[in-house]
Design brief:
This protein is an alpha/beta fold. It is 36% helix and 25% strand. It has one domain: Alpha/beta knot (3-Layer(aba) Sandwich), CATH 3.40.1280.10. Strands 2-1-4-3-5 form a 5-stranded parallel β-sheet. The chain starts with a strand and ends in an 8-residue tail after the last helix.
Length: 141
């Protein structure tokens, strides 16, 4: 299953970009990272179908790493071929996008800059795939 982060804003050469790259290189699942301007621009169509769309949103559900891995594993096992993770600009996502999404995900109640959210998401994608593969990296407590 393709894991696809689609984010508003440019990460460019930055510490957050280096973290994103570090975890993207560790992923054994197919991975893509797409950037959109802060405003305007169109979300690219899915490369594969069926697909699921996850919005990172303050109104979303906070999940443990194990729950997140289980969700991705279930979608993979159901034949989903692409999982798209959308990160909005400063104002987040509109009501229409939230209603269309298959899942709303948040990284807790704090607000995170979109550059950090990308790096954190990349790490959690790697962690989830490691959990699903039974890799010893992840230690649940």
């Amino acid at each position: 299953m393709l894991l696809h982060i689609i984010a508003r804003g440019k990460i460019a050469r930055s510490p957050e970009g280096e973290l994103l790259d570090r975890y993207a290189k560790r992923l054994t699942w197919p991975f893509r990272h797409s950037e959109l301007p802060d405003v305007g621009g169109k979300v690219p169509p899915p490369a594969h179908t069926p697909f699921r769309e996850v919005l990172l949103d303050e109104r979303g559900k906070a999940m443990s790493s194990e729950e997140f891995a289980a969700l991705l594993g279930r979608w993979r096992d159901e034949g989903v071929r692409e999982c798209r993770f959308l990160i909005g600009a400063a104002d987040g996502h509109g009501d229409e996008a939230r209603a269309r999404a298959d899942h709303l995900l948040c990284f807790g109640k704090m607000t995170w800059p979109h550059l950090m959210a990308r790096a954190m998401l990349a790490e959690q994608l790697w962690r989830a795939t490691a959990i699903l593969a039974g890799h010893p990296y992840h230690r649940s407590g």
